[in-house]
Each structure stands twice: as structure tokens, then as C-alpha cells.
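Q: Give me the 3D complex with coenzyme A.
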Amino acid sequence: MEFEEVKKGLAGVIVDDTAIASTDSSGTLIYRGYVAEELAERSTFEEVAHLVVYGHLPNKKERLKFSNLLSRNSRVAPNIDKIMGLLPRNAPAIDVLRSIVSMMPLNENEDDGKLLEIAAKMPRIMSDWHRLSKGSLPLRSTDGTYAERFYYLLTGSKNKSDARLLEELLILYMEHEFNASTFTLRVAASTLTDPQAAMTAALAAIKGPLHGGANAEILDYLLQMKSTSEARRYVDAKLRKKEKIMGFGHRIYKNKDPRAQYLKERLRVFAAAKGAEKLYDIATAIEDEMWKMKNIPANMDFYAAICLYLMGIDSSFNTPIFAASRSFGWTAHYLEQVSNNKLIRPSSRYIGPVGMHL
Ligand code: COA
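A: Here is the predicted complex, encoded as C-alpha cells.
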């Protein structure tokens, strides 16, 4: 029998067409034809989410309708908080988000409405969980933009400039073509399961430390470091032991992650305003050393985790924040998959025994 080459991890394998986003190894990320960093700098979250989901930037009427849909659906039913009250207090926020998303009742009828309803509720689910698990009353807000609401629900603060940085970060997290969680969602969607089930599958995949879970682990090592020389020694020791450093490396971006570089520049200014220049210097020393020793670039999670920390956001939120933003990308991918569906069912190369008999 002739064997075809196995592409482990599907690296480099093109499995389908998409018109939603494109990446390339030189460090480009495009949403529906627009450069992601330009969208982050000049657009609102709602505008970019509309672009990603429906394929075009909204006109005034569409923008209002879309914003209203997100705001109207941002509340969660009271029985959801009761269900949360039954969960173990130390359950990770991403697990709670996945569990609640899997079973919450939905009001919208069409597939896009259902998916956006789930996406719109994620900030409130994670905020309610965080507060309930600490014994505080939930925060209530449907005011402001999606990012302002989200920032308030995470921190209890209405600081508009921090909320704007969160908005830029959310825009950059929103979409990334066939990454692991999106591909998981597309596999589920290809069976013609319902949108809620497909979203739940994506939430399961994003949790892993090689994907979305990485952003929750970065501060664990970063905040231990007292100086740039200690940071360099840390990198050298980890690489010598052949251990991975979270927040570095990427399947596509081998030279630079454009989202990381955008946030790095925003962090430089933000850290100076917060009196956290030393943290910025330590972070860039780690990045430089990783590049010098192994030519591995920082990925978006590295700088996103530091920005979120300086915004005063609890790091248990990091992965759910990523998921909440990416849920708009997942929405687009669900709709694209079912609009031109073929069951995703690859083949495997059997390497087990043959000819066995009882
Ligand atoms: N720290 C140290 N070494 C790393 C590394 C990291 N973060 N990421 C990759 N490498 C090394 C691997 O050890 C391997 O080295 P080798 O060739 O000497 O064995 C080489 O780079 C290739 O890595 P590999 O894991 O095979 O590449 P990949 O394309 O399959 O993996 C990731 C991409 C993202 C899974 C990987 O870079 C990683 O695990 N990063 C850390 C987790 C993370 O930050 N995830 C968020 C991604 S946005």
C-alpha cells in the first residue's frame, strides 16, 4: 500500500476557501480585505464585528441596528445567575462560560441572531461569575459601546481611555481564519449541528494553553521578574531545558505577529502613563532574548496579557475576553460553513497491527 505524507497538525494544509480573514507568514492579518491594525486604530468594535460577520462595514442605519442588537442581548436571564450559584466557586471562568453558553435559552430565531445573542452575553456571563464567586452583587449595565460596557463589567470603572485600549485589543483578537477554535467550530458546523453547540465546541478548544489559554499564564512568570537581566536569564534557562514560554511562537507568523507589534507600541505609551515602564522593559527584554536565541517572535497573547493587567483586569478573565471577541469571528465562520457545506471528515493513516485473530 502506498502511503501519503501525513501533515501533522494539518500544518500548511489548505482545507477550504474563506472570504473572512487572511494571514501570511510575513506578518499580515486582513479582515474582509482591510488590514486588522488599521481597523483597530480607526474603527469601533461594533463596526469591525459587523464587517467580519456580514462582509461589509455598516452604514449608519446598520450600525445602529447592530449596536442595538448587542446591547439588547447583553443581559442574561435571572435563572442563569442561579445556575452559576450552584457551580464550584473555584471553577475557571472559561469553563463557566462554556457551560452556560451550552445550555442558556436563546430568544433570537435566525442562525446569525442566535450566534450574536450568545456573543453579546459573554461579557455579562463572565462578569456575573467573577462577582458571584467573590460574593459580590453582579454589575448591571447596558449603557455605552460594547467595549465600554465590557470594560465596566470587568472592572467596575468607566475610564474611557482604558476602555478604548480594550476595544483595540478586542478588535485584534476578533478573527484569525482557521485557528484551532474556529476550525473546531467549523467541524461541528459541518455536521449541521446547531449554532449554540458549535459555539460550545469552539469554547472547549480555545481553553488549551497552546491556544487561548496561553494568555492566562504569561503574568505568572512575567510578574516574578525584577530586572531585564533576570528576564534574559529566565529565557535562556527555559530554552536550555527545551521548555516553552507562553506568549511566544505561532503556527503562521514566523517573523512577527502584527497584532503583538501593534499592542507593543500601545503598551509603551500606556505603561508610561501608569508608571509601569519597568514592566515594559522586562517584557521587551524577554522578546529580544527569544528572538536572539531562537528566532521566535512574541505573539499577540504576550502583549495582550500585559495590557489587560495594567487595565486592572483580573487575569482569570484573559482567556474568556479572547473568547468573547473571537465569538464574532466564530459567528462569521459558522455562517460561511453552513452556506456552502461539506461534512469535514479527513482520513487517517493506520499504523496499528493487522491480521490479528481471536
Ligand atoms: N517557547 C519556546 N520554544 C518554542 C515556543 C515557545 N513558546 N514555540 C515554539 N517553540 C519551538 C519548539 O520547541 C520547536 O523547537 P524545535 O524545532 O527545536 O523542537 C519549534 O519552536 C517549533 O515549535 P512547534 O510547537 O512545533 O510549532 P507550532 O507551529 O506547532 O506551534 C504554537 C505553534 C503556538 C503551538 C507554539 O509556538 C507554542 O506552543 N507557543 C506557546 C503557547 C502560546 O503562546 N500560544 C498562543 C498562540 S497565539
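A quick observation: The mean pLDDT is 95.
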